Amino acid sequence: MTLPVLSEGSSALLRDPLWRASGAESVEEYARWAVNICGMACLKMILAARGETHRTVDLARACTAFGGYVANDEDQSIKGLIYALFVTFVAETFGLKAKTITNIPTAGIAPLLEERAVFIASVNSQIRWPDRQPPSKGGHLVLVTAATADAIRFHNPSGHDQDSKANVTLPASTFDRFFANRGIAVTL
């Protein structure tokens, strides 16, 4: 659904045949959450690595109860992910050790992964097209699973094809153009 959403807007999500698997009670609820749920998609991948299966909207609702999202029913807006409250949520709900990391250069990701299992990194969503120059950094979350001084490997919840979705490897200098120098380090 990524390409239709990019070309038509979030209303394209109302036609997603997979919405029922999300945990949403209606396709409208799914469409509301789907554009704001990259952090929960990253968490879902982390939990899957432990053998746990969770639905993304269920995770989002639970995280909202901890203040990790602020869902405004009046204007239908969703604010978040609020990192510090997400850290509390995953610790209390899943026993995960997590830490908000700010002001981390791209070169600092590889040493961080030596201490922690994965890193949820804030990047520009246009990272799916690494040849483009992003208009800004941050605003979307990807799950970094490996890094060296020269390359970063990650899963992108909103990749538009297999090459931009799973085990994407980019040169560190390319990743840096999209990376907002913040995220959440998580130990399984």
Note the topology.
Layout: H1 2-8, H2 27-34, H3 38-49, H4 56-65, E1 69-71, E2 78-80, H5 83-94, E3 97-102, H6 109-115, E4 118-123, E5 140-147, E6 151-155, H7 162-165, E7 168-171, H8 172-178, E8 179-187
Antiparallel strand pairs: 1-2, 3-8, 4-5, 4-8, 5-6, 6-7
Helix pairs in contact: 3-4
Please explain how this structure is put together:
The chain is an alpha+beta fold and 188 residues long. The protein has a single domain, classed as Alpha-Beta Complex (Cathepsin B, Chain A), CATH 3.90.70.10. A 6-stranded antiparallel beta sheet has the order 3-8-4-5-6-7. Strands 1-2 form a two-stranded antiparallel ribbon. A hairpin with a 3-residue loop joins strand 5 and strand 6. The longest helix is centred in the first third of the chain and has 12 residues. The protein is globular, with a radius of gyration of 16 Å. It starts with a helix and ends with a strand.
